[in-house]
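Subject: Interface between my chains keeps coming out wrong

I've been trying for a while to get a sensible model of this assembly. When I model each chain on its own everything looks fine, but I need the whole thing in one frame so I can look at the contacts. Pasting all components below, labels as-is. Any help appreciated, I'm running out of ideas.
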Amino acid sequence: MTTNHEGRRLILAHIWVAVLAFGVAAAMAMMQAISRANLDLPFRTARMYYMSVTAHGVLMALVFTTFFIMALGYVIARQEIGAIKWPRLAWTCYFVSLAGVVMALATVFAFKSSVLYTFYPPLQAHPLFYIGLTLLVVGSWGWVAIMIASWRQAKAAHPDRPVSLALHGTVANAMLWALATIGVAAEMLFQLIPWSLGWSKTIDPLLARTLFWYFGHPLVYFWVLPAYTIWYTVLPREAGGKLFSEPLGRMVFSLFLILSTPVGLHHQFQDPGIPASWKLLHTFNTMIISFPSFVTAFTIVASLEVAGRLRGGKGLFGWIRTLPWGNPMVASVLLACLLFMVGGFGGAVNAAYMLNSVVHNTAWIAAHFHLTVGSAAALTFMGTCYWLVPKVSGRSLELGLLAKVQPYLWFLGMALFSFTGHIAGLMGLPRRVFTTDYAGAPQAHMWEGLTTISALGGVVLFASAGFFVLVMLGTLLAGKPIEPEPIVWAESLGTPAGGYRVTVWDRLGLWFAVAVVLVLIAYVVPIWDILHLTRYGSPGFKPF
Ligand code: CU1
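Reply #2:
Try treating it as a single job with all components included. I did that and got this:
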């Protein structure tokens, strides 16, 4: 147990890493968008481009998200039990994760690990890249243990009532992460690390990709569930209303725990060596997992309608206008939700076997996940920082005007970047190429206007990211001392007298066990098959 002061330092230490990672990654993204529009920049080479895409992906998708999510988890657990459980473990894990990140990024910036954030073999990185990312994951396991221990303590203290919805969502996510990271840990320990150290000469790319996507799909839910937690437990109150249904929220998080992992083959539709029947099973699971997201869309829109009407909104759509669009936290989440709706429809295209072959490896994919992780998650996290950092640090939010403008700039930039990316992808523009002129090929001309608009989007996004980082630095370094407002979760509409009772959806241990069974059904046979195919190992390649 620790005092709140120590908890405060721990949480802010995580936020610092998240904000700095975000700032560096955003600067690299702008250069990439400009490079893909074939506009000449100083130092523009393929080598520089792939180094910077790797750094951008690792910093955004693995560092910014993980550190922010750990910070939010500590906030929520502390709120529940009044302190951070096992603070020494928490600090140890923080430094292990940070050391891993520094190690991995040092090799990236030294041009020794240009393998992109998916680190597909046979592209080969420096061993410290794989070891560093493994340490980041190992550090996050300590966080998982602390979340589960806090949850058990909260349940033991009040066995007759459920824990807060915020903690329920956080612990579902921690369990999901524990299950998912087994895949990437196995890939690192049995394949990538021994191979990069030269202990094994060749690697099986199909097995590596399968283990990666076993981890990679639940990874996207690891990003999105904390955003959903904020949508359910913070947004309704900040918008001036109540959560439409808390029991639906509990069901949603438990369903995500069950369904997030046995779907990874939907990233491998084009991979040979995996029977179509197994790909089909994963497709069905993917379609089922859209159900809790639809429930979330319904519940959140209903909660917002409650808020808008309580604020005096009338008529069919009048309540939308009366929402507090000038509150940077609320605006961030509302705009994140709008972008996510488009991203969700694109995701349904990706998940359909036939449609997937049209968009596979095109600019569509990068455009798609910038609406999901890059907007639904990242913009929600930024909005959450505006709400959370003053409460944790005891400092006033500085540069409030920039904070008000920032979510709108993100929305505009992402619309320019992403909508054009979807269209260009349908017209055949590949993802992950540093130049798109294809030696003047006629088809490449058709992309020109689109990649230019996309680059403009990149510049707007960079401005938005810069505003966010300035607001955070101003607040953390120069905010005026304030008496922070307490954190209060949103009330639920129609809470029964005496509060909610514990239901089957609160039994996360049970749902974790169900998730394990589904994972075994979905993966044992395909992985067994891969291990018994004629294996063609590949040596490592370092083209950049
Ligand atoms: Cu996926």
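Reply #3:
Confirming on my end. The radius of gyration is 23 Å.
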